């Protein structure tokens, strides 16, 4: 709970693997915390495709505050994000990789759409981010079992099963592949 006060994302950094960040209900955030989600996906891998390693044009916190205040799409976002999170947690627990990937990708794109609809528009995605997505979608149409996810930034993260590692490296040779279940 203390890590959340520095950065919400930090709450997920205490464990390897899947971690759920509970939003809580208290105004001061004292009940907002994370917990480990045990699942059947120990062969999941993440590839980071770095697009822009420089500072963001606007902090994530400021960007989200702007989005909440001005985006006409934000009204439906929290309910959809909660539904996606519930479905993702179930997919993790049941080992349904494709469901996890489809939901994670759709959720990330919806978040970015909500920010782009803010007034004035806010986007963290760069031309290169879109090029990574287009390359992924074309490769997936050819059989690559990988999906994208993105936080409030330009970089794209790919999620896939270990058996697809060589294929991902072939399509994205610049990507850094991580095993989130590996002990440090």
Account of the protein in words:
This protein is α+β, with helices and mostly antiparallel strands and about 180 residues long. The chain folds into 2 domains: about 1-40, no CATH class; about 40-180, 2-Layer Sandwich (Alpha-Beta Plaits), CATH 3.30.70.890. About 40% of the residues lie in helices and about 15% in strands. Helix 3 (about 75-95) packs antiparallel against helix 4. It is globular and about 45 Å long.
What key attributes describe this structure?
Alpha-Beta Plaits, 6 strands, two-stranded antiparallel ribbon, 184 residues, alpha+beta
Query: Strand content of the residues, in percent?
Result: 15-25%
> Could you say what the CATH architecture of the largest domain is?
2-Layer Sandwich
Structural class: alpha+beta
Rg over alpha carbons: 17 Å
As residue ranges, the low-confidence spans are none
Order of helices and strands: HEEEHHHHEEHE
Overall 3D form: globular
User: How many separate helices?
Assistant: 6
Estimate nothing, just give the exact number of structural domains: 2
CATH topology of the largest domain: Alpha-Beta Plaits
Distance between the termini: 23 Å
Q: Could you report the average pLDDT, rounded to the nearest whole number?
A: 91
- Work out the number of β strands: 6
């Amino acid at each position: 709970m203390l890590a959340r006060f520095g950065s919400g994302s930090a709450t997920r950094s205490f464990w390897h693997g899947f971690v759920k960040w509970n939003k809580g209900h208290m105004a001061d955030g004292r009940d907002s915390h994370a917990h480990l989600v045990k699942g059947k996906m120990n062969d999941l891998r993440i590839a980071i495709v770095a697009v822009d390693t420089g500072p963001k044009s606007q902090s994530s916190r400021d960007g989200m505050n702007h989005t909440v205040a001005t985006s006409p799409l934000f009204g439906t976002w929290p309910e959809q994000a909660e539904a996606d999170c519930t479905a993702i947690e179930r997919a993790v627990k049941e080992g349904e990789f494709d469901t996890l990937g489809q939901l994670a990708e759709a959720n990330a794109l919806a978040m970015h759409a909500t920010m782009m609809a803010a007034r004035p528009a806010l986007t963290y995605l760069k031309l290169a981010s879109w090029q990574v997505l287009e390359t992924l979608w074309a490769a997936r149409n050819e059989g690559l079992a990988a999906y994208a996810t993105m936080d409030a930034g330009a970089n794209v993260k790919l999620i896939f099963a270990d058996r697809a590692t060589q294929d991902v490296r072939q399509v994205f040779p610049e990507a850094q592949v991580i095993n989130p279940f590996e002990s440090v």
